[in-house]
Design brief:
Elements lengths: L2 E9 L26 E8 L32 E6 L8 E4 L5 E4 L1 E4 L3 E2 L11 E9 L1 E2 L10 E6 L4 H4 L6 H5 L2 E2 L14 E3 L2 E3 L2 E3 L2 E2 L8 H5 L3 E7 L2 E6 L4 E8 L5 E4 L3 E4 L2 E16 L1 E2 L2 E2 L17 E2 L4 E2 L10 E2 L25 E4 L20 E10 L8 E4 L2 E4 H15 L10 E5 L5 E9 L2 E4 L6 E4 L3 E7 L14 E10 L3 E2 L12 E9 L4 E7 L1
Parallel strand pairs: 1-8, 2-16, 17-36, 18-36
Antiparallel strand pairs: 1-6, 1-7, 2-8, 3-6, 3-10, 4-5, 4-9, 10-12, 10-15, 11-23, 12-16, 13-14, 17-27, 18-19, 18-21, 20-21, 21-28, 22-26, 24-25, 28-35, 29-30, 29-34, 31-32, 32-33, 32-34, 35-37, 36-38, 38-39
Length: about 525
């Protein structure tokens, strides 16, 4: 159920320090006045289903998750910034209860009331309506009214609040850091005025001059429609309990086909079936900064062409990443389950098993299967390979194009050492597999004694799935086939199957072969959805 927030607002000052304890001017119930020189009515939508009529990118829209704070807006965390037509701060004068005057371009609500029968923070996207009480124009603006307004909701750092009396250009250049931790049940999501291209230029502010009236009644009859969007993007992955391993191969006509389930020859025994259990997933290459307000270029030329700008609905579907943002490689240890706590997404528990991040569109040309380090935001999937019908992972090795279990390849390596040394007696306990520096491959070593080690040169470039531990990796794909993560979108991955055994070892970003695939459906939502069926390498 939708809910509306009705409020009266007065001009309020916010001291521009790193940790200000100053409070805004008192509200009407504290002795202040709700009367002003002029009034402006506003209606705020945080881009949920309000634009369902749009046809851009086959969109479907989704409300904030039930039980989450994704769509929550509160009056005490809502700010409006006024500017003149040239982008200068438009100061308004408000007289506080003690007689002192405050001159500021920032209006902050002082009172809020919810409709009967609704409660705050139940996960629904809020539609906010109300009247802003404006003071008289400050010095230099006598007889004039503001021309533009920006909206900021739920800032969780003082950086977002300390925009008072700044120019529009400096406000739009403000960076935002992520919260200490992303929690859809506890963290209020920062939202700012939506950006799009209009008449060949970036449009972020809403025009307000015609909407400023002399009475509350006149303002209510002509409200300003403001769209705001979350700075965060949201990713979720849904998958089955296990998958048969598919195998990419060629038929007699030398045509590439996918064998499902794949049949593997292991230890010279043919037609063995393997399956993969997904243990969890996490994001890779997440941005450490975002632009507080979405930045756009009017001259994008994407291939294939797709409609990224939607001025009719005051929104867009692409963005420029913050140029100062580093890409954070989320630490992982594929042998430590604690690093992969996210399990399969379940629509019945929509607040769980999701990950939030800031936008990263620096490398749109990368394919979903490209594993170039330090590029697009990606998904690392931790999994375990096992023989069909078994519960434990298989200790599997691949050498010289063939698959072996650990003990069998050890024995083969020991026999090779013996053959290279005039059939000397051997002991498989002397065989060790050593990882190649900076790679995902191993080589065999035969220990003759504690201080004498002989390397068997034939046994190199070994892939080793230790206890079956493996990983699959894919760049997150946006609309139009671009790699990228854009604010206010949900990237909904549904895994249909797995091709190949994944990337063995503990370096999912350092593959040795391009034989590992994830077959899945991808939906990109804008708290908005685009459906794709893709095979990801």
């Amino acid at each position: 159920m939708k809910k509306s927030l009705f409020f009266m607002s007065a001009i309020a000052a916010l001291v521009m320090t790193g940790c200000s304890s100053e409070e805004p001017a008192p509200g009407p119930n504290e002795g202040g006045s709700a009367e002003g020189n002029s009034y402006m009515a506003i209606t705020i939508s945080n881009l949920s289903v309000g634009s369902r009529a749009a046809t851009v990118g086959e969109p479907e829209f989704e409300n904030a998750a039930t039980g989450s704070t994704e769509g929550k807006i509160t009056a005490e965390n809502l700010y409006f910034f006024f500017f003149d037509k040239n982008g200068n701060a438009f100061p308004l004068v408000y007289e506080q209860v003690n007689g002192a005057e405050v001159v500021t371009n920032m209006v902050k609500p002082l009172a809020a009331e919810f409709e009967a029968g609704t409660s705050e923070g139940d996960g629904e996207d809020q539609t906010v309506t109300g009247i802003l009480v404006l003071g008289k124009p400050g010095q230099g603006y006598v007889g004039e009214v503001p021309a533009q307004v920006l909206c900021v909701a739920n800032p969780y750092t003082d950086v977002m609040k300390n925009l008072e009396n700044k120019t529009l250009a400096s406000v739009l250049a403000t960076p935002a850091t992520p919260p200490a931790s992303w929690d859809g049940k506890a963290t209020n999501f920062v939202m700012t005025s939506a950006s799009y291209i209009k008449d060949g230029a970036l449009k972020v502010t809403d025009d307000v001059t015609p909407h400023i009236k002399g009475t509350p009644e006149a303002a209510k009859a002509d409200p300003v429609q403001i769209n705001i969007e979350r700075l965060a993007a949201k990713v979720r992955v849904t998958y089955a309990a296990s998958y048969p391993v598919q195998k990419r191969t060629t038929n007699e006509a030398d045509v590439e086909v996918v064998e499902n389930p794949g049949k593997f020859t292991i230890d010279n025994v043919a037609d063995q079936e393997l399956e993969v259990v997904i243990n969890g997933w996490q994001l890779y290459n997440t941005a450490t900064l975002a632009n507080a307000f979405k930045q756009l270029n009017a001259d994008y030329t994407f291939n294939p062409t797709w409609t990224w700008n939607d001025p009719t609905n005051k929104r867009s579907y692409w963005a420029e990443s913050n140029p100062g943002a580093n890409l954070r490689k989320t630490d992982w240890d594929l042998y430590n389950a604690a690093h992969f706590t996210n399990k399969s997404f379940n629509a019945a528990t929509p607040v769980e098993n999701v990950v939030y991040c800031y936008e990263n569109t620096k490398f749109p040309e990368l394919a979903a299967t490209d594993r170039t380090v330090n590029k697009a935001t990606g998904i690392v999937i931790k999994a375990t390979v096992r023989k069909k019908g078994e519960t434990a992972g298989i200790n599997l090795m691949r050498w010289n194009g063939a698959y072996y279990t650990l003990d069998v390849l050890k024995d083969k390596a020991a026999k090779q050492w013996s053959a290279n040394n005039s059939n000397a007696a051997y002991d498989v306990a002397n065989v060790e597999f050593v990882q190649d520096a900076g790679k995902n491959t191993y080589h065999a070593v035969y220990h003759i004694s504690q201080d004498n080690t002989q390397v068997i040169p034939l046994f190199t470039d070994i892939l080793w799935w230790i206890d079956g531990v493996t990983s699959y990796y894919t760049n997150v794909e946006h609309l139009g086939g671009l790699s990228g993560v854009v604010r206010n979108h949900i990237y909904d991955y549904v895994i249909d199957g797995l091709i190949g055994l994944g990337i063995p070892g503990n370096k999912p970003d350092v593959p040795e072969e391009t034989q590992h695939y994830v077959a899945c459906h991808v939906r990109v939502l804008n708290w908005h959805v685009v459906k794709n069926t893709v095979t990801l390498e």
